[in-house]
Automatic annotation (TrEMBL):
Lineage: Eukaryota, Viridiplantae, Streptophyta, Embryophyta, Tracheophyta
Protein name: Nucleoside diphosphate kinase
Source taxon at top rank: Eukaryota
Catalytic activity entry: a 2'-deoxyribonucleoside 5'-diphosphate + ATP = a 2'-deoxyribonucleoside 5'-triphosphate + ADP; a ribonucleoside 5'-diphosphate + ATP = a ribonucleoside 5'-triphosphate + ADP
Amino-acid positions noted as binding ATP in the UniProt annotation, renumbered to this chain: 95, 143, 171, 177, 188, 198
GO molecular function: ATP binding; nucleoside diphosphate kinase activity
Source organism: Daucus carota subsp. sativus
UniProt keyword Repeat, yes or no: no
């Protein structure tokens, strides 16, 4: 018994070592938890910080917030828009003032440089009945008789143009009806000053483009052909 009691310092030492190891493990565990917590905070802060630099998602059809959508391939919307573009026809007419002022070549050049295809062209003296049919939507307007007199006062240049989005694009090339409000660089913005002498007419819709071409051109006067530069304009 005395021998056992005499060895009590050793027992005390073992207890101390065990206590020290326990404390060390606890300390390590606390450090790990602190490290994880700090890492999480840093990750959270970093994520919030980097969120400001994320690319805009409105160009894509899928949303990263939806787990199902995330698995779908991203589709770039402009490609969808391009795939829906259609070849159209439009009727462009250089009015008597444009012919008398020698602007025919200038106006044709603008459409050619844009890349549209000229499929019909003729110099034509417009009869009154054709002018009235062309402008029949304006028949109730007080300026209608004056408009008819103006269009039939001299030869006009009739043109049929073809291309992707040609109707809207031609309207932009021509400019506003009132030349004083037309943008510089447009035909009317550069070459005209008054609505009653605004040089050129352009169809306002694909449907009217087809209707007006059929109205101003006889069968066989519109040519079907492929420009040599076509592969350099359209993919």
């Amino acid at each position: 018994m005395a021998a056992i009691l005499g060895g009590s310092p050793a027992v005390t030492s073992l207890s101390a070592i065990h206590s020290t190891q326990t404390t060390t493990r606890t300390s390590r565990s606390s450090c790990c938890l602190l490290s994880y917590a700090t890492s999480d905070k840093l990750n959270l802060r970093t994520s919030r910080h980097l969120a400001a630099f994320q690319p805009p998602s409105h160009l894509f059809s899928s949303s990263p917030s939806n787990a199902i959508t995330r698995n779908k391939p991203l589709i770039f919307l402009p490609h969808l828009v391009a795939s829906m573009e259609q070849v159209e026809e439009t009727y462009i007419m250089i009015k008597p003032d444009g012919v008398q002022r020698g602007l025919v070549g200038e106006i044709i050049t603008r459409f050619e440089k844009k890349g549209f295809k000229l499929s019909g062209l003729k110099l034509f003296q417009c009869p009154q009945d054709l002018a009235e049919e062309h402008y029949k939507d304006l028949k109730s307007k007080p300026f209608f008789p004056k408009l008819i007199d103006y269009i039939t006062s001299g030869p006009v240049v009739c043109m049929a143009w073809e291309g992707i989005g040609v109707v809207a694009s031609a309207r932009k090339l021509i400019g506003s009806t009132n030349p004083l409000q037309a943008e510089p660089g447009t035909i009317r913005g550069d070459l005209a000053v008054q609505t009653g002498r605004n040089v050129v007419h352009g169809s306002d819709s694909p449907e009217n483009g087809q209707r007006e071409i059929a109205l101003w051109f006889k069968e066989g006067e519109v040519c079907e052909w492929t420009p040599a530069q076509a592969p350099w304009l359209i993919e």
